Amino acid sequence: MGEPYLLQMKNIGKSYYGTQVLQDINLSLKPGEIHAIVGENGAGKSTLMNILFGMEVIHSTGGYEGEIHVNGKKEEIDSPQKAMEMGIGMVHQEFMLLPNFTITENIKLNRENLKPSFLSRVFGEKTKRLDFPTMNADARKALNKLDIDIEEYVMVAGLPVGYMQLTEIAREIDKTNVKVIVFDEPTAVLAESEAERLLEAMKIIAEEGIAILFITHRLDEVIAISDNITVLRDGKLVATKKAEETDASQLAELMVGRKIEKMVHGEERDFKNEIALKTQNLVVHMPGEKVKGVDLEIKKGEFFGIGGLAGQGKVGVANGIMGLYPGTGQVWINGKPLGLNSPSKSMARGLAYVSEDRRGVGLLLDSSVELNIVITSLQNQDKFLKNYGLLRLMDNKGIHQHALKMIKELDIRCTGPTQLVKRLSGGNQQKVCIARALTMQPDILFVSEPTRGIDVGAKRLVLETLVRLNDELGMTIIMTSSELGELRSVCDRIAIVSEGAIAGILRPGDPDADYGLLMGGKRKRRGA
Amino acid sequence: MKFDLLSIGKAFLANFGLARIIILAFFIFLCIMAVVFQLDVAELLTSSLVRIGMWGVLVLAMLPAIRSGIGPNFGVSLGILCGLIGALTALEMAFRLRETVQFSGGVLFLLAILISIPFAVITGVFYGWLLNRVKGSEMMIATYVGFSMVSIMKIAWLFLPYTSPEMAWPIGRGVRVQISLAGRGITRLLNNFLSFNIGDVVVPTGLLLFFALMCFLVWLFMRSKTGVAMHAAGDNPRFSEAAGINVNRSRMIGTTLSTVLGAIGILVYAQSYGFVQLYEGPMFMPFVAVAAVLIGGASVKKATITHVVIGTALFLGIQVVAIPVANAFTTEWASMGEISRKIIQNGVILYALTQAGGE
Fold first, then answer.
1. Over the stretch A128-149, which tens digit does the pLDDT of each residue have?
2. A391 and A490, same structural domain?
3. CA nearest to B257, candidates B15, B66, B23
4. Is pLDDT above 90 for B131?
5. A·B CB contacts under 8 A
6. What is the pLDDT of residues B138-158, one digit of tens each?
7. Cβ-defined contact of A392 to B243 (cutoff 8 Å)
8. Which end of chain A is more exposed for a tag (fewer CB within 10 A), N or C?
């Protein structure tokens, strides 16, 4: 402990609107240290970095608890500018670069070297000329440090992503006072060789005495380059380990480990060998959730889970099979091939879908509960229509009765079938979505993120409803969720999606470490 | 239950909308002034009713457009042009066949509608196809499509082979700027149908009934499978795609329906007015209809029949009352009526557009 700490975060806590998202986080950084922060989505990594960086979201929602010390002195970091003055830099996950500027211009943006011009003698600082030779030289120096052989006068547009990332890093190290650089999932968008190069660059920077905070979920990278590792889970600090004292599977277990509330199906169920849904090389072009070739076999009556980290493609699977995003590959429903890219075709084959984007795709917010419940069935199955002479109009009475039945069955809390959906709470809106899917009387029900954004009590009700449908009606349910605990409490099998493909299929009772490893990008042989 | 005057006031303001309250207050102010200046209230009421009936269908044309998601149809002048073609063709047929048959006013009116509908349907489909290609800026595109079509038709009116002497210029080619409908039994045909008096107020029963009938038909349509699909497509396109609804087709149907209603609307307008106005005539008519439906409480995303009816009554009522009141106030302010109409019309459109983005 002889060396002074460069940065210390003491007892950091943060709550949004009464929900504690971070609690008692302690973190210390020495110069030249590479410190990794790992955790699942929602573990609090981003919030912690937002606090360190003085982001607006933190301060407009009541600030944070605890203290931040820089160079042993307590500092109030209340804006990104302040953070930069303190020598904290950040390399973003999405590139913050101007594509039509050169690398030099991007590196020097807003910190340009100036030289006096004729005008500046009269009009002052603002009219000084840019000193391009010095700027280029500085940029070259930064690029050389990172061992990049690309010319500094090249435009950023069209560069491979790896170079863009390195340009961002060059920008940070060119700042003369920079002491800490935060890397927010820097390798997420990079190919393997590019990622290796980036890790090399990080080591070079660390040797210069700059401390690095490295946020990632690729566990092998963490082990490879970090000095120390902090594991966050559910907003709490679970452990801080030295890299040499731990390994990937221990980290995975720490990352995931959580009590599983209740196993709905006590023992493993056996299914007849009837395949309800089969996919082969399913590719779905869903922005941000690309699926790059998924093979699945789901049995009739099974409660199947799809898990994985955000952005890995788990959400794309259901969207692709339902035809909401363009896809290619083969899908069979009950042994017969399904044409992709048409929601109505998918629905005609007995599929129904509860979307993860409840307010965007799932609901007609400005319409009544009853219309929301029946509309898909009305449009695709010609139900709830009645002949009036030559005209076929909505069957008000039938719609009303059906809505009342659904409201009662699913316990939707509303003033009545004619209430506008936007006035309902999140949990009840979710139930309206489920009611609509059930109205289709599907054989296979896709449910994505059914408990996102709803409170704990409602979560339980929604999950219980799904389990009941699976048990009593024998409906095959395919649930996609970011919450592993939730999947493990209700599913028969869980596929973990990583980088657009199935990393492995696990049983709910399998050890935490297996889940962590699959999510962390380590592949397992198929056929668990 | 808590009766807190302020919160009730706030809720009222939120539900009813500030713009509508200002306009309603202005209307009430005008009505009070009309009484103060001892204007002929019965006369004002009579012409208000006529105005409402004249414009009603044109304002109604906004409803399918807004519901299907293309926003207020600033290009309803396309429909109006189709209606005008229907009117001129019907009149021309009456002229050419004058030796064999004599068309009554009713037949002439129906004929004009029947001729204009196919034109309106074809135009509407093309127009809808165009609007599907410019999603997000429909209103601006619609305005300019309307302007350009009106201008193109100005040239067309000079070349179309209408020869009936009432229509054609006495010398040279083309049709006149304004064609009188006098002497054909079509002028005020709807207005006079079952018309009756309440005191000195004349109620144009047929005109109002026709408006009501059109509203009813649109209401029925909105309850059909296609109508529901259109509503969903306008409300939330992404939802609709997921529900297996063809959003582009729904928007096309909405646009076409709006265009057809525009065509019928101008015929109702013309028979009441007694003249068919060509050339500049249809140029700014869409703005009146748009302003009316917005004053009625519609937004660029939401509209109901109630909005159409209230908006037509309010906006056209103001138009009728404002001019005589301004005249009575001082003759120097004679143009105040027209100016205030323009301020309200454009102000309301502007207000609605600023509200378009936010929820």
1. 888 888 888 888 888 887 777 7
2. no
3. B66
4. yes
5. 64
6. 888 999 999 999 999 999 988
7. no
8. N
No. of H helices and E strands in chain B?
15, 4
Same domain, A101 and A165: yes
Q: Which amino acid, one-letter code, is at A165?
A: Q
Evaluate whether residue A370 is within a structural domain. Answer: yes
Q: Do A379 and B241 touch (CB under 8 A)?
A: no
Query: In angstroms, what separates the C-alpha of B75 from chain A's closest C-alpha?
Result: 26
- Which chain B residues touch A318 with a CB distance below 8 Å? none
Residue A488 is part of which domain span?
267-349+476-528
pLDDT of amino acid B79: 95
pLDDT value at residue B76: 93
**Nearest C-alpha in A relative to B245:** A379
Asked if the Cβ–Cβ distance from B236 to A364 is below 8 Å, we say: yes
B153 CA to centre of own chain: 20
**Residue in chain A nearest B221 by alpha carbon:** A393
Choose among B220, B223, B243: nearest Cβ to A375: B243
> What is the SS3 assignment for A91?
strand
Highest mean pLDDT among A273-277, A358-362, A516-520, B75-79: B75-79
Q: Considering CB atoms only, which of A344, A365, A394 is closest to B228? A: A394
Q: A293 and A155 share a domain?
A: no
Sole residue written with tokens 């509209």: B303
Instruction: List the structure tokens of B127.
Output: 């127009």
Q: What is the CATH number of the domain that holds A280?
A: 3.40.50.300
Q: Name the nearest CA neighbour of B225 among B250, B259, B242, B203.
A: B250
How do residues A7-34 score in pLDDT, each as one tens digit?
888 888 888 766 677 888 898 888 889 9
> Do A344 and B244 count as a contact with CB atoms less than 8 A apart?
yes
Q: Note the ipTM here.
A: 0.80
Q: For A379, which of B235, B244, B302 is closest by C-beta distance? A: B244
Which residue, A419, A441, A463, sits at the end of a domain?
A441
Residue A232 lies in a domain: yes
Where in chain B are the domains? 38-306
Say how far apart CA A261 and CA B302 lie, in whole Å.
45
Among residues A232, A256, A280, the one where a domain terminates is A256
Q: Is B223 on the interface with A (CB under 8 A)?
A: yes
**Number of domains comprising chain A:** 3
pLDDT beyond 80 at B341? no
Question: CA B330, CA B334: separation in Å to the nearest integer?
Answer: 7
Same domain, A70 and A171: yes
Does residue A368 fall inside a structural domain?
A: yes
Q: Do A372 and A277 sit in the same domain of this protein?
A: no
